[in-house]
């Protein structure tokens, strides 16, 4: 994997068994916050796998632990117990520096709040993750700019590319955040309620784009939602209830269900 030394990764733990098609594997993950009476046991004994190129929805009500679980899979939080394997790397035992490198190298994020930078245009916001990596050369930069423009266009935002966030409505801001998560062409996208601010048409554009990335780049997606209507066109649904995963739901509704128009 680019930019990461195996020594940095393995110094805190043994190498786990290889998972050929598996991109993410969680085993026995618990997450607790706080102490004493303030203690919250947010996740209980979570185990699941996400295959490379798979689109999985994580469904649950408010407070069920969706963001906590996404943050753990996305290496933004560490589990209190249990292991997180990304590729063949035991991420839950890595040094912080190695986790940062792994995040930059292979994960794109759509956060629950859009977190756009107010002094950058929509197009510049999309390009931001690339600026945080090694500075691209001029030819590479031109290609990246074109990709950012294309992603905004595919999300129906061609006219808003030069707008600053204060001129964008919530749906437009959310779609800029979605384009920003995809611009690095990550192997894994963690999307926390990405459809929450979108109407049916915008949600359809988002899913069209996700499916295109899956097909063309083999991108895997873990997408949280509280809205059952958004459990369409995914390969599989995981259901969280009070921090516990329920038995897996039936595989793909993708061929039989359609997004509302
Ligand atoms: N940093 C934290 N400190 C203390 N408790 C936390 C923290 N983060 C989450 N929690 C608690 O963990 C539980 C799960 O929260 P989480 O935000 O993961 O739920 P969620 O399913 O994403 O909810 P929502 O749909 O409202 O975003 C909640 O009880 C929440 O209060
Ligand atoms: Mg949440």
From TrEMBL:
It holds the Pfam family ABC_tran. GO terms for molecular function: ATP binding; ATP hydrolysis activity; transmembrane transporter activity. GO terms for cellular component: plasma membrane. Keywords: ATP-binding, Cell membrane, Membrane, Nucleotide-binding, Transport. Residues 24-259 form the ABC transporter domain. SUPFAM superfamilies: P-loop containing nucleoside triphosphate hydrolases. The keyword Cell wall biogenesis/degradation does not apply. The keyword Plastid does not apply. This is ABC transporter ATP-binding protein.
